[in-house]
Amino acid sequence: MKAVAAVPQAVDPQRVAEHGGEVMRLVDEIFPLVEGFYVDLHRNPELSHQENRTARAVAEWLSRAGFEVETNIGGTGVVGVLRNGDGPTVLLRGDMDALPIEEQTDLPYASTARGVDADGQDVPIMHACGHDAHTACLVGTADLLASSRDNWRGTLMIVAQPGEETLDGAEGMLQDGLYERFGRPDIALGQHVGPQPAGMIVHRAGVILASSATYRVRIFGQGGHGSQPHTTIDPVVIAATIVTRLQAIVAREINPSEMAVITVGVLRAGSKANVIPDEAYLEIDTRALNNKVAEQLRASIERVITGEARAANAPRDPEITLTHSGGVTRNDPGHTRALSAAHRAYFGDAYVVDMPEPFTATEDFGRFGLPDDPNPIPYVFWFVGATPHEVWAAAPGTTPFDKITGVPGSHSARFAPDREPTLRAGLAALTLGALSYLAAPTTEDDSDDPHAFVPTAWSETEAAAPAADDWDDENPVESTQNADMDALLGDDEDEGESTQSAGPEDFFDDPPPPMRGPTQGTQTGPSDSFRPPSGPAYYAPPPSGSPIQAPPPLPGTDPDDYRI
């Protein structure tokens, strides 16, 4: 990976926080549109590589914000480029696809959509992985930066990616000439909602997400009557033996110091109790944190499946097909520390934590870093907490590690991010990430050239959180998770009342400062036919609520007990 110094326009964290504050003054005006856009996407999810409606909405938003926009990149992908003078090229990525899950959140904007998957099956569709929030924050960040071009220099590349759930969308866009057509970025940035308390930002240097591989397996036998099993070769028994034997790979073949997962998520065979079928079918998922273990899993799985079938005298070897795979997501350590410091300088230490261990989920975002290239592109990927604070508080357990397992996470039918703190934190985190590299003009005191760059190297130390003496106690804020949905869904022509009712003292001992920044300039957002939520814009401090439903660690306690 490139060293931090390879992007000379990066500035120190406190300066980023200050410039970010200038840009974030726009958030009050743009937030109702972003929130409405999110609700609209959540109600209208689309499966992988079918994101046509979503892509059109993204393209229209970017076009109105002044970006050069191209669609149908790698299928339904959208790319927007905004050139704003000399400087680095920063890629911001959001994914658009949803999952074949039936939503069970009881939200007033819950999805009832259905579609046809790649196998031709009619399935329910839900944004159960937060890609609606990713996309809403992506276009919102693009709009914020487009409306405040005096605060930065360089090129902003917005990438709305299809097919993340199938782990082939990023590669598809690259194969369609993403970098050849739009330029090679100096840095790639992405984020994902997570199970942490809403508004928390979570970083990890190095490996943050695991690799994965999915296999489809057909096992062949010789069917017959269930009363005459001795005349058959039962593929159900072969499949059952394979399922149990696969677990011994992790237990007895993988070094205990390594992480590995093998899950058989699908097992199908037969249609009647007294009929032994001719075939059985399995789908197997694996996870690993390095390529060596991933390759060991692949070889062992093939050996076990083939060996068990041959031991049972199957008429032919099983068919084993790798359907999709993704490598580890490995954050550049230097750039991760840089962005973490910028986020801490803006949000405050209480809202930015370091993840001690990788998640075993898999992303294809790392493909944008060209990991197989002799000169790879550095990238940073982080999490934005999305769990409502009341849900976090009610979750079983006394530590963050306990509670994370007790809240609805991604790929759950009950996954329901807390809208306002999640979207506000996502907007701020992604905007600050971009401004960390898009060089800002200096003041006249710094240089005679008003467009000079500031090639300050990143400090390896964490920046201190800004003071909280400008918190406005007269303008408290509450989450809009339970706000008037008639207003948010555009069904009420009258302006709704503010949902602000809780004072910051309900959530903080020492609250972070409010966000600050300039006034919106250009006309942006969706078309006139898109109806944003009515009612006033909401005040824009950093996410409200204690990060772990408690104040920061008390003196004498172990800070590690408060890390997610």
What does this structure look like?
Helix content is 28%, strand content 20%. It has 564 residues and is α+β, with helices and mostly antiparallel strands. α2 (27-43) packs antiparallel against α4 (131-146) and α4 (131-146) packs across α12. It is elongated and about 80 Å long.
What separation lies between the terminal Cα atoms?
27 Å
> Helical segment tally?
13
Structural class designation: alpha+beta
* Oligomeric state as shown: single chain
* Binned strand content: 15-25%
Gross morphology: elongated
Arithmetic mean of pLDDT = 81
Largest sheet: 8 strands, mixed
Q: How do the strands of the widest beta sheet line up side by side? A: 1-2-6-3-7-18-8-17
- Can you count the beta strands? 18
Rg, Cα atoms, Å: 25 Å
Q: Helix share of residues? A: 25-40%
Weakly predicted, low-confidence segments: 1-9, 444-483, 491-554, 559-564
Protein name: Peptidase M20 dimerisation domain-containing protein
Keywords: Hydrolase
Region (Disordered): 488-564
Biased composition (Pro residues): 533-556
List the helices and strands and how they pair.
Blueprint: H1 13-24, H2 27-43, H3 52-64, E1 68-73, E2 77-84, E3 89-95, E4 114-116, E5 122-124, H4 131-146, E6 154-161, H5 169-175, H6 178-182, E7 187-197, E8 201-203, E9 206-209, E10 211-220, E11 224-225, H7 235-252, E12 260-269, E13 275-276, E14 279-288, H8 291-311, E15 319-326, E16 329-331, H9 333-347, E17 352-354, E18 379-387, H10 389-394, H11 400-404, H12 419-435, H13 485-488
Parallel strand pairs: 3-6, 3-7, 7-18, 8-17
Antiparallel strand pairs: 1-2, 2-6, 4-5, 8-18, 9-16, 10-14, 10-15, 11-13, 12-14
